[in-house]
Write a structure and sequence with these properties.
The protein is mainly α and 834 residues long. It is built from 28 helices and 2 strands. Keywords: Membrane, Transmembrane, Transmembrane helix.
Length: 834
Amino acid sequence: MAHNVNFDLSHPRVEAGLESPADEEGVHDSFSQLIAEESQKEGPSDAIELQYQQRNPEDKDRDNVAYLSPSENRRWRIGSDKTGEEDKGRQTDSLLKDSWSSATLKILSSMPSRTIGRSRGAIISQYYNRTAELRRRTQRRASIKDFSRSARPSIRGYGVEVDTTDSAEKKQERLIQNLQNLSAVDRVRLLKEMPLNLSEKKSLRRLTLQMTKQTRSSSNLRCCSYLKFHIILALRHSWYNCLSFLHSLHLWQMPLKRVSGRFGSGVLSYFLFLKTLLFFNMFLFLVLGSFLVVPQAVYPPEQLENRKSFTGLELFTGGGYFANTLLYYGYYSNHTLHSCSKNNISSPPKPECDSKSLSYNMPLAYFFTIGLSFFVTCIILVYSMSKSFGQSFRIDKSNGMLAMKVFCSWDFKVIKRSSVRLLSENIRTQLKELLGEAHHRHIRSTISDKLVRLVMHGLGWILCIGATAGCVAVIYYFSDYMHKEQLKSSQNDSGDPELLKEASLLALPVLVSFINLMLPILFQFTAWMEKYNSPSLRTFVSLSRNLILKVSVLGVLCFHWLKRVAGSADNNKAFKCWESFVGQELYRFLIIDFIFTLLATLFGELLWRSFSDKVLKRNRRPGFDIAKNVLDLIYGQTLAWLGLLFAPLLPAVQILKLLLLFYIKMSSVMMNCQAPSRAYRVSQMTTIFITLLCFPSFLGASVCVTYTMWRLPSSESCGPFRGNKTMIQAGKQRIVELVKENPNLYFLAEAHTYLVENPLVLFVGATIFLIVIYFQSQVVDGQRKIIALLQEQIENEGEDKKFLITRLQSVHERKRTPARNLTSQVSLWNDRLV
């Protein structure tokens, strides 16, 4: 039958190579011979048999085409996707006839596509022939790459030699013998492809294993071979158990299944993206903790006497007691750590430290660890993005996907009641999404509706961009005002309490978080007024508007930190260690953003659900805003990447935030939110999330950190690069000193000169990453074209079948017409004689 199917080019069976439909001359010749033979077998019994079959529609062989009603016969049309097409000509019209000749019915019933699902004996006989052919091939080569991909026989597949003389038991015995002679991998693959039910497959597998064990027990194996065989079996069993255990350790496996079954792929993509960010921060925490935090914690610097006591406000401001800790840049030493230091106190090297003592150059470690973290993160992001491109941007036609979901999506290994319920909910939601996507394709709008919608969209964008520009201007001027107030308070040394000064530092983060909370509500209301037909389009538009807001806010904040704060380091004692101050600012923004997220979850979801249930007496709950929540995650991750240089332990804070956020959001979604009223499938959402994380977020953070290390002056009183004009010069100076101490390390100086100081290397590296992404997209585009050609090829094969069946029917009609004329003439002469 010609219908739309989806191909997966990454499937291992596709790599084996399919037979070309261009080599089907023998097939057409065989059909011509078949037509010629059947046309000679014309007799009166055929018509009588056909009439009898048409008068008995309840016969046991009801699956023949002639027994269908005219409407059912039209639905059965081979190779037709549209019932209203009228340009198929005489070939297609002849297929709509209610009665065919018995010879045509015999040929149709003997076609492999019509017999494969009815007879278990035919299946066993067919796969006996396939196993015999496969065993002959394995004598030449062990691979089964030439094995047919389809589980159903085709005209051009391997020969189906059905032996009707043998009983089903003999066929099954021969099939088991052939399966026994195959390798374990080929045997399992062949059993999976058999179109039998699960119990029959288990029975065949059990009988094959029993015969294999009997053969092995009857053979005289040596003691060593017998012991080796059982050791291999035990190791394999242990390996499978280990893999099963590791699979059960997947993070948040069951909660993600519940969300997917109840809310669909859109909400699921948010939690999967949160999980991805958690792994990124775990990697950063391990790298920075291993090379920076742990060595400095083992050899801490000399403690200051006037260290502040803990008051509790430091949890929100990040200052006070936390100011002089491992959390920030200013705590780390600017010299080499030696194992011979007394009391593990890091200090400049002393004469008693000889060359045999272990040393650790903290400035070099700080410089290269930050660079290595960004470089590896960039590689992971580019790989994830290219892989996501390959998984998302493929042809997913709704008709083929619906057939796959209906017939192939159930997992028969699931036996637990809760797992069965989750799987059924998941499949039901996916079917709703596919049906909604197919329904959306058939929606047609008039020109007037399009014009009205275009005007509404334009007004909505003007309103959203205007509100974003106004809020960004407010943040710019308020940050300038707060900066001037801090300069005045530090110069005049006003008598305000210390706690009040620290609390005033929360004003800017509170304002920014408030704007990030309120403006998405305006965006959501505007999208509701615009009345988008497609829920996925509405999600993408909301995503774009939230992205413009977040990028604008982060741009203003980076200008505030790298221009105003860093520029005031020489003129004011409050910003003498401006790197630590920027790290404290980033900490404050992360904490306040998390607090506002909790408030939005409490008041926006929990209280609204309670008010709707108890006051309004309606089951109307809020929906989950995917765009806002995803951009909040990207915003927080950008702050964490910016803080790698200024606060090395900021990824640990981000890990705690993401863990709490997952459980809070998961509970809120399951208890307070409702599923979308119109289910929709967002097939490319994960790819878009990774792309936004890579280009606006990671690229912006990398540019800011690189600009800081190359251009901005380092603080004179704190940090590993104190006493140097810039951080890059400090790294070069340390490498020169290291080469002088050990001439064998001269290659480090050359590597630093050509790889770090030369901007061409960064340009070439960025170009290579972009080329990789481009080639990956081109490969995916080529695969899409191949899939389209294969689908067109299947449709052409269906047209060939229609043509052959029509020709066969027309031959029988021409043969039957002279016989009818002769019969009518005989009856006429008989009437005249009477």
